[in-house]
Amino acid sequence: MKNLMVANFQLTKAGSVKRYDLDALTTNLKAQIENSITLGWDPADIVAVTNFEFEFMGVTATHLPLNEKCLTGSKMFAVREHLRNRGGSVWAHDLDAWQCVPFDPPMFKDIGIATYSRPKFNGGSVFIRPSAFDIIDAICNTLESEKREEPTLEKLLKSSLYRDRITVLNYTWNVGCSGFVKRYTLSEKPIKVVHFHPSNRMAWDTHARNRNGISIDATIPARLKDLMVKYFGDIIHTFVYEDDRGPLSVREIGVRGKTGDLNATTR
């Protein structure tokens, strides 16, 4: 099993950054690689795919010309190239989908994928066998024209052509912020993958501040929290308050804009 992640840096025709600047992508990659190695991954089994030069902790990025239109779908193109040239099963995940604990891969058919709290596939954490090459190829070919990853996954993976080859995974493989109570409650514990952006205040309130009013320990392990502080700085401390205000009070402060940029994914 390979641990595959993609960083796609793109500029508009006017020369502005399309979504994430190079520093942000590099920081996320470094944090992901250190997290993976800490949890037992061999650097040789970490596949970082980029369209810029990158090397960190013994992981040298595979340099590919990535899709210019569908940035979130770039990992599907990277998976296709991996299966075509190297073979071997992969865990392909977004740069904001964080492994929490050491794990063995789940049991799955050709593709294993979790959903949001509603039965819609979430493309942020996907397990893929070499036998799924034809499915991945079809996804990539569709993305060339439709340019939206998850609607494409939804359409193709649930089609009569492929649905019998897909395993719907337990929520534990992708616990984000939307529909958090359902996803957390129905997850096998401990949580395997938590999906949040480290600069998102609402994500920290959801996972570490009991924003949803259910009495749980943080889904972000202390070890992972320390890693976030290392790479993303003291901004995290402004999100994880030390006083006794309840989640509604904390949320009100965020709405007033005192705790920074809320522009981040909450998948």
Description:
The structure is a single chain. The protein is an alpha/beta fold and 267 residues long. It folds into two domains: 2-171, Spore Coat Polysaccharide Biosynthesis Protein SpsA, Chain A, CATH 3.90.550.10; 173-255, no CATH class. Helix content is 34%, strand content 16%. The chain is built from nine helices and eleven strands. The chain has helices at 22-38, 74-85, 133-146, 149-157, 180-185, 201-208, 222-232, 235-239, 247-255, and strands at residues 2-7, 46-50, 55-56, 59-60, 62-63, 90-93, 97-99, 111-115, 121-128, 166-168, 193-195. It is globular.
Secondary structure: elements and pairs:
Blueprint: E1 2-7, H1 22-38, E2 46-50, E3 55-56, E4 59-60, E5 62-63, H2 74-85, E6 90-93, E7 97-99, E8 111-115, E9 121-128, H3 133-146, H4 149-157, E10 166-168, H5 180-185, E11 193-195, H6 201-208, H7 222-232, H8 235-239, H9 247-255
Helix pairs in contact: 1-7, 2-3, 3-4
- The CATH superfamily of the largest domain turns out to be Spore Coat Polysaccharide Biosynthesis Protein SpsA, Chain A
Distance between the termini: 24 Å
Provide the CATH topology of the largest domain: Spore Coat Polysaccharide Biosynthesis Protein SpsA, Chain A
Rg calc: 18 Å
Structural class given helices, strands, pairing? alpha/beta
What sequence of helices (H) and strands (E) makes up the elements? EHEEEEHEEEEHHEHEHHHH
Question: Largest beta sheet, briefly?
Answer: 7 strands, mixed
Could you name the ranges where pLDDT drops below 50 across 5 or more consecutive residues?
A: 11-18, 247-265
Number of helices: 9
Share of β-strand residues? 15-25%
Strand order of the largest sheet: 5-2-1-6-9-8-10
CATH class of the largest domain: Alpha Beta
Number of strands: 11
Rounded average pLDDT: 84
